[in-house]
Amino acid sequence: MVTSSSYRFSSSFVVRLAGAALVLLGVLVVLVVLLAALLPLPGAVPLAALVAVLVAVLALVLAVTRRPVVVAFDETGYRIRYVRGAGVRQAEWRQVEDVTTSTVAGERCVVLRLRDGRTSTVPVGALAGRTEDFVQDLRNHLDQGHGYRTLRGRA
Questions:
Q1: Distance CA 26, CA 130 (A)
Q2: Number of H helices, E strands in the chain
Q3: What is the rounded end-to-end Cα distance, in angstroms, of the chain?
Q4: Distances from the Cα of 12 to the Cαs of 15, 67, 88, 101, 126, in angstroms?
Q5: C-alpha of 144 from chain center
Q6: Where are the domains of the chain?
Q7: What's the whole-model pTM score?
Q8: What's the CATH fold of domain 75-145?
Q9: Considering only CA atoms, which of 57, 91, 58 is closest in space to residue 77?
């Protein structure tokens, strides 16, 4: 019996996103300081901008420390979240016709092709853990979803 499993973004992927977010946040802080210095704004406007920056920093810290589930498998199907260009985000195993690998924008991806021609694309380089483990788990769930059993030979 295959249990449900989930996959999160890898630490390196989260750090890359956090770096880009910090650069944007730095630009925002510089703009707020310049506006406060150059324009005769009431005191509440710079304070509101500072609070907005602090909230953005808190959101960034939470995103880095609490990585969300990106791909989840269970007995009935799969769910993909937070992946731009993933295609079909949720489907049942019996809808999956086959699974292939591909390279999209330089990233290694697993592509689940559905019976109706639509696809789901998972960039495996952005996931935590080994790609081989992800693919094996996907294969096990897909086999179970289609009612296949593993044949074990005698030694």
A1: 34
A2: 3, 7
A3: 23
A4: 5, 12, 26, 22, 8
A5: 25
A6: 5-65, 75-145
A7: 0.72
A8: PH-domain like (2.30.29)
A9: 91
